[in-house]
Amino acid sequence: MRFASLLLLLLAACARDDRVSAPAPPPASSAVPPGVKLGRPYTVFGRTYVPVDDRSYDEVGIASWYGPGFHALPTASGETYDQDGLTAAHKTLPMPSFVEVTNLHNGRRLVVRINDRGPFVEGRIIDVSRRAAQLLGMEGPGLARVRVRRVFPAGDWALTTAPLQARAAPAPVAAPLLPPPAGGERAVFVQVVALSDEGRAHFLVADLADIGPAAASRAPSGLWRVRLGPFTDPAAANRARAAAQARGFRDAMLVAG
User: Fewer CB atoms inside 10 A, N or C side of the chain?
Assistant: First the structure.
């Protein structure tokens, strides 16, 4: 009888341990190191998103994946997108940060690193890389109902630093950027990138606002072009192109209007 009581106590303790949730997020301490990006509030399709260092993030929703059309292009963090890496896009979490994605259809679980913004489709909460989709068993269906929970693996900057604060949108840039040309002068633009995803194109328009006037337009090919300008001063155009290249858009080029 005494043995049975001890066994019941042991089982109860184990049950309590099973119910323990994830460890508490790390507390704030020192300044944020270089290389971590939160970004300014931005608006896509009429909806405004405010990036935040949410260390208790835990949401259930729909995941999608993106691959060949973005492979080797810059991500919102400035990194080059690798469709075979274990990365993901999220609308508001810091870049980089880490989340555990659980496919609620099959129980598969994977930790991915946030290094991009998106997806800008109603109801979707994360866009994983093609390789992550394969490991989660969602490449074929394309979509899956998932749980996304922020985690803090060893080496994560958040283990020793304070939460990030979103930066306010900068004031519009004036000189040396010039107004549209007049009197027959031909406009020059900086074409930053061409994307198939309209939502990401509009995000980049907001993200590049501190470099100069930016706009997204649809090309005859169907791709969305993100451009800076117009410029009539070649030096100003070259400065804008250099600034875009410094953000990771190495193929940014000058094009005639």
Answer: N
